[in-house]
Design brief:
The complex is a heterodimer of chains A (506) and B (81). In chain A, 78% of the residues lie in helices and 0% in strands. Chain A is mostly helical and 506 residues long. Chain A has a single domain, classed as Sodium/glucose cotransporter, CATH 1.20.1730.10. In chain A, helix 7 crosses helix 15. Chain A is globular. Classes of the chains: A mainly alpha (506), B mainly alpha (81).
Chain lengths: 506, 81
């Protein structure tokens, strides 16, 4: 696959176009509102495409298709799971968060609760989520570029890291939004082109595509049998909860709710995003079965995660392979930029401005800190991606959704809908959710055995959401209900004003 | 607004239940799921996954329609004032 000229030229065109976008964005960005929220000037349709772009990472495209190709029907779990969280984010969080917040989701948490501790908790969980996502994406990008262009892994990771820092440093939210829009459009067009080729090959029927996959499979009954991806019911329910409640707590996605002018636009953005993500997953199901039908059953060059790229080769030769590979790379590049902006915002807006400076920092100082954080976090992420090159990083891709569901979503929904929540309850619940979600994943097989080399896992399941989420909610309830402090009483009294603002806006 | 809030919670619970239920059924490898539902190869698992995604889309459309009506009523009320 090395040295594909189509991939190289599309990749070069994408990088040139995105640097041009960054230059344009830099010229029209002036203050903090432009840097964090693109000045609130993004339209719902553009924002929907950008939100979908943020969520449709390389894992959605490469990962789901590879599960269909290597295991079979279990790929449906990822396809359904990828859509499940968006209706809930639309129904319960979108409009209210837009009405309560300004730049990050912790603005809403801090509306009636004590600002400094809840922002500190939100910043820690944001750094945890974005850090894991960033390293996982950078490892994927490094491997992809290494295979595609015969570039050493470390050089590839440094290149991606450098581009990511340039986009965020100079373009802020305006640049990352437009890069997401371009990338999401490219990903949708490429996958639709692949669908047309699949339908031309098999005829316009899902039945014939699945029939082709069954004919190609050495064991058709095993291919159709589910239950091979997730080993037990507890892990399955945990994964389902993470998929359903995680997106409403992903900080890089929640930031996008503030890039539109009002709550109505935020809701419309989410409706567009859900529709795009759902249609994309329908496409992925078809492509997954096509990959199982058309690709050889043995090991693939570059591993099973490259099934989508090999499918492109089988459908459209070297040209489509080059296009699919370059679009996948563009996907990773766009996603890491959004993640980096969310991480830098947690440092500058939450930690620096509100926790350290108690809300008294100037806009210029805040943006300066954000840029410094971008460089520092970028260097750390690149270094971590080089260290983790040969590790099983599967846990890094699942941890963010588990933490987002157990900490951010849980606390956001409680703050918005439950009068009784106090700062003490939110902190106790959030810390419980954070410690349990991170701790139990470390103690599970994926890290404790596969990475740390112990003989047996301490936590017997793969995903811990079934334990971390209820524990976080229970602790938040109990501590809030037993909180008799004066501050707690004031926070309960402030609920009515917050509720009215969240529904009707300023 | 209250009607929109109730609808939001009902649809969210429906979404959560369908997702977790589907994940549990798939992982426990319920034999029913691998039975052919349509044609020669589309199993009940495939049909269920497609149906769930379509229900998600329908619920978004329903919620958007309801919220749009409330937006219009609020806007009319503001104009009258």
């Amino acid at each position: 696959m090395g040295g594909n000229p189509v991939a190289a030229s599309i990749f070069a065109a994408f990088v040139t176009a995105t640097l041009g976008i960054t230059y344009w964005a830099n010229r029209r960005s002036a203050g903090a509102k432009d840097f964090y929220a693109a000045g609130g000037r993004i339209t719902p349709r553009q924002n929907g495409l950008a939100i979908a772009g943020d969520y449709l990472s390389a894992a959605s495209f490469l990962g789901t298709i590879s599960v269909f190709a290597s295991i079979g029907t279990d790929g449906l779990l990822y396809a359904v799971g990828a859509v499940a969280g968006w209706p809930i984010a639309t129904f319960l969080v979108g409009e209210r968060l837009r009405n309560l917040g300004r730049y990050t989701f912790s603005d809403a948490l801090g509306y009636r609760l004590a600002e400094r501790p809840v922002r500190l908790l939100a910043a820690v969980s944001t750094l945890c989520i974005t850090g894991c996502y960033l390293v996982a994406q950078l490892v994927g990008a490094g491997t992809l570029v290494q295979i595609l262009f015969n570039v050493p892994y470390a050089h590839a990771v440094v290149l991606v890291g450098a581009l990511m820092m340039i986009y965020v440093l100079f373009g802020g939210m305006v640049a990352t939004t437009w890069i997401q829009i371009v990338k999401a459009s490219l990903l949708l067009i490429t996958s639709l082109a692949m669908v047309l080729l699949v339908l031309r090959h098999f005829g316009p029927s899902l039945d014939s595509v699945i029939g082709g996959a069954l004919s190609a499979s050495p064991d058709p009954s095993r291919f159709l049998r589910s239950g091979q991806l997730v080993p037990d019911g507890v892990s399955a329910v945990s994964l389902g909860l993470a998929f359903a409640l995680g997106p409403a707590g992903l900080p890089h996605v929640l930031m996008r709710f503030f890039t539109v002018k009002d709550a109505q636009s935020a809701r419309q953005s989410l409706s567009y995003a859900t529709t795009i993500i759902a249609l994309f997953q329908l496409v992925v199901i078809l492509l997954g079965y096509a990959a199982a039908a058309l690709l050889p059953t043995g090991p693939l060059p570059g591993g099973h995660n490259m099934a989508a790229i090999h499918l492109a080769n089988a459908l459209g030769g070297e040209t489509l392979l080059g296009i699919a590979a370059a679009v996948t790379f563009a996907t990773i590049l766009a996603v890491v930029s959004g993640l980096m902006l969310a991480a830098a915002s947690a440092v500058s807006h939450d930690l620096y401005k509100h926790v350290w400076k108690r809300g008294r920092a100037t806009e210029a100082a805040e943006i300066r800190i954000s840029r410094g954080a971008t460089v520092l976090l970028g260097i750390i992420a690149v270094y971590a991606a080089i260290l983790f090159q040969h590790e099983n990083i599967g846990f890094l891709a699942t941890l963010p959704l588990v933490v987002a569901a157990s900490v951010n979503s849980a606390m956001l929904i409680l703050t918005m809908y439950w009068r009784g929540l106090t700062t003490r309850g939110a902190l106790a619940g959030g810390v419980t959710g954070l410690i349990l979600s991170v701790g139990l994943i470390v103690l599970s097989r994926g890290v404790w055995v596969d990475v740390l080399g112990h003989a047996h896992a301490v936590f017997p399941y793969v995903y811990p959401t079934l334990f971390s989420l209820p524990a976080a909610l229970l602790v938040a309830f109990v501590v809030s209900l037993t909180d008799r402090s004066l501050r707690g009483r004031g926070e309960r009294q402030a609920f009515d004003a917050q509720f009215t603002l969240s529904e009707r806006g300023p | 607004m209250r009607r929109q809030r109730v609808l939001a919670w009902l649809l969210s619970i429906l979404t959560l239940t369908m997702t977790v239920g589907f994940f549990a059924m798939m992982t426990l490898a319920a034999p029913l799921l691998s039975r052919v539902a349509f044609g020669r190869s589309v199993t009940i698992a495939n049909a269920a996954a497609l149906a769930i995604i379509l229900v998600f889309l329908a619920s978004i459309a329903l919620f958007g329609w309801q919220a749009g009506r409330i937006d219009q009523q609020l806007s009319d009320a503001r104009k009258q004032r």
